[in-house]
Specification:
Blueprint lengths: L5 H11 L3 H10 L17 E2 L15 H23 L5 H7 L5 H29 L1 H21 L3 H15 L1 H13 L2 H32 L3 H21 L5 H16 L5 E2 L7 H18 L1 H31 L4 H6 L2 H28 L13 H5 L1 H14 L5 H28 L4 H18 L4 H24 L2 H15 L5
Parallel strand pairs: 1-2
Helix pairs in contact: 3-5, 3-8, 3-9, 3-10, 4-5, 5-6, 5-7, 5-8, 5-12, 5-19, 6-7, 6-8, 6-10, 8-9, 8-19, 9-15, 9-18, 12-13, 12-19, 13-18, 13-19, 13-20, 13-21, 15-18, 17-18, 17-20, 18-19
Pfam families: MFS_1 (PF07690)
Protein name: MFS general substrate transporter
Organism: Microthyrium microscopicum
Length: about 500
């Protein structure tokens, strides 16, 4: 899928602007973390690479303005896609009434089925972006998401709505795995955590923001209007991306450069330095298998995915209980029930500010102490300070609801969960990107798929769990599980380097 010609002119104009980015690059060079490997042109040996270390065709040398435009698109779509999963939560009773579906389990499944699409999509969309480039996969899949939003808005039955939400989730999942990979395309190791934090925040705050908006929309306009508004906003953003988004995947950029040079020089022997020298069929087969291989052979991926998926499942389990808790126990209206999700989002924003302030600085400090040798595990120490807040929040929220305390108590109890969750997810995702840089989309795809499948099905266990144990004991069980798993990032910080060398994964 080729980009419109206007993008070439726009990118050239942006690259001519913003000379201030050069001083930023100079500052980076003074930092102790070594530069990422840069393949440079070697025409004598028939190898095509970047013209120089400062070649502006290299996405890591793009101007700040150009990078910011791309990151803004990624941030907005990264928020809208997961927001779609929970926007309908406050309006579930209205949708069930209109579509004649009295089963509460079906109502919960209507929310979580979207996350099942997040399980399916990443496993092939992320790897496909490593073959065909970021641009065509992001654009096509996001338009696919937008089209099925229209289907959701017009759904005549509950079964059709569930199917269309599954398809919308599959399309919307692409940006969830490709946006972090684009961060790796654009930013060197020393600046990656700060850039990643923006993407992870928008992806994480979306599910918390969805019910806040959805509550007011469902009560004032009807539950279908949530989809109409999403359709308008997401369609507009996707149209802008189609015109303005540049390709950022270095192997794809160098492949096109090689093709141009072959034509202009008549040298058929030229090849990209990042060329795998495999047929597209072989590349596709390997790419589809790659996420499964990571999940089954890399202890690092297995541990990170298990921990993050568990916490993510607990988030959706908590969020599916909120409408019932605050409408039945506290008598809140649909619109006010949506506001109950606010503390989770505020906790995430607070964690983002802490991570942005401390994580890159901590990595630089640890690198200096390690004879200026960077290790991906240096991203992980901060997680222990955030991990402890997950069980605290689950105990706090569960027992305050169980004992029917004043509504402010469970509301405040949800803030630590958002704070702890984002404080765990940010370093863990950046760690995966750093540890599997070239295949970062596949690594993040595995993480996203595992999180999504747990997020899709664990909430279905909520009603029987809380019916049997109550909110107090039920959330205490979840809290104990999260407490047992909390040391995982610290164990990886201590032994991750040894594990990577002892069990290397051939991708």
């Amino acid at each position: 899928m080729e980009k419109p010609n206007i993008i070439v002119e726009l990118n050239q104009q942006i690259d001519l602007k913003d000379e201030a980015s050069k001083s930023e690059s100079s500052l980076e060079e003074s930092l102790p973390i070594p530069s990422d490997n840069v393949p440079l042109m070697d025409l004598d040996n028939g190898l095509v690479g970047w013209d120089s270390l400062t070649d502006t065709a290299n996405p890591q040398n793009w101007s700040t303005t150009k990078k910011s435009i791309l990151m803004a698109f990624m941030a907005v779509i990264s928020m809208l896609s997961p927001l779609t999963s929970t926007l309908v939560a406050p309006g579930i009773p209205l949708a069930m009434r209109d579509l004649h579906s009295p089963s509460p389990i079906i109502g919960s499944f209507m929310v979580t089925i979207y996350m099942l699409g997040f399980t399916i999509g990443p496993l092939f969309l992320g790897p496909l972006s490593e073959i065909y480039g970021r641009y065509p996969i992001v654009i096509l899949s996001t338009w696919f998401y937008v089209i099925w939003l229209l289907g959701c808005a017009l759904a005549p039955t509950m079964s059709s709505l569930i199917v269309m939400r599954l398809l919308a989730g599959t399309g919307g999942s692409a940006v969830m795995v490709i946006a972090p990979a684009i961060v790796a395309d654009l930013y060197s190791v020393r600046r990656r955590a700060t850039a990643s934090s923006v993407v992870v925040l928008t992806q994480s705050v979306g599910p918390a923001l969805g019910p806040i908006c959805g509550g007011f929309i469902a009560q004032e306009l009807g539950w279908r209007w949530g989809y109409w508004i999403l359709l308008i906003v997401a369609g507009s953003v996707t149209a802008g991306m189609t015109v303005c988004m540049p390709e950022s995947y270095a192997p794809k950029i160098l492949q096109k450069k090689t093709e141009r040079l072959r034509k202009s020089t008549g040298r058929a022997d030229l090849r990209s330095m990042l060329d795998k020298r495999m047929s597209k069929k072989a590349l596709l087969a390997r790419s589809i298998v790659r996420p499964v291989k990571l999940l089954t052979t890399s202890p690092i991926v297995i541990l990170i995915c298990s921990y993050c998926a568990t916490i993510f499942g607990f988030l959706y389990l908590m969020m599916t209980t909120i409408p019932q808790v605050f409408s039945s126990t506290y008598g809140w209206t649909t619109s006010y029930v949506g506001l109950a999700y606010t503390p989770i989002g505020l906790g995430m924003i607070t964690a983002l500010l802490v991570i942005m302030k401390t994580n890159d600085a901590k990595v630089i400090k640890l690198t200096k102490q390690n004879n200026n040798v960077f290790e991906p595990e240096m991203r992980l120490p901060a997680t222990i300070y955030f991990a402890i807040w997950i069980p605290i929040s689950l105990f706090w929220y569960g027992w305050s609801v169980d004992k029917h305390t004043h509504w402010i108590v469970p509301i405040l109890g949800m803030f630590p969960f958002g704070f702890g969750m984002l404080g765990i997810f940010l370093p863990c995702q950046t760690y995966l990107v750093d540890a599997f840089t070239e295949y970062s989309a596949s690594a993040v795809a595995v993480s996203r798929a595992s999180m999504s499948i747990v997020g899709a099905f664990l909430p279905l266990a909520g009603p029987p769990l809380y019916k049997a144990l109550g909110y107090g004991l039920g959330n205490s069980v979840l809290g104990l599980v999260s407490l047992v798993m909390a040391p995982i990032p610290i164990l990886l910080y201590k032994y991750g380097g040894y594990i990577r060398r002892r069990w290397p994964v051939t991708l």
